[in-house]
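Materials and Methods. Structural model of Formiminotetrahydrofolate cyclodeaminase. The 220-residue sequence of Formiminotetrahydrofolate cyclodeaminase from Alkalibacterium putridalgicola was retrieved and submitted for structure prediction as follows.
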Amino acid sequence: MKDETFSAYLTELGSKDGVSGGGSAAAYIGAMSASLVRMVADIQKDKKTYAEKKDELNSLLNEAERIREAFEELAKADAVAFEPVLDAYKLSKGTQEEKKARQEAVEAALKGAVEPPRLMLEEGQNLIQVLKELTAFRMKGTIVNDLMVATLFMGSVLETAVLNVTINTKLMKDKELKEQLEKEAERRLAHGKLELTKLSESIRYFLEHNEWPELLTEEE
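The predicted structure was written out as tokens:
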């Protein structure tokens, strides 16, 4: 580690006074997954074996880096996303007008709080696509293990993101929006888990047999 930034975050995460929680932790795991993917692409792009694919690998590298940065921003956003909800619940509800204003403030805050985990699902899908394209290169060596770790990480990220979507939607009074957000989250989770299962099976096969299975995960 070049500095104590990550250590400071872990200290904050473990503190009862900290604002960070499972959502921000999952986002940082997503960022680590993206960093592993970037590393693999970076190493492979300079190998003679992939000389003709260097532009493609550079493109995957850049996308992985963009996703990592996105996850880092989402970690920060998630850490403070619920504060407006708590503030809204503290508003006065003495009169009918105040009750209405309070409820509108709560709904608006909940819509804001659901955005970080919703976007984590979106970026998670983007990283899964990069993983699929890297796996299709049928690379060799221990570096394939890093792709497996990135794949395992992403499963946890997706599961956590859905939990954090529903923890907010269950408080919403807007039933239509609540149903829309929950269905979108479950759809992304189901699709992501299916793709990750295919990826992990292919990668695990290579790690066990030192050769790739005949059928790799591909776009259907």
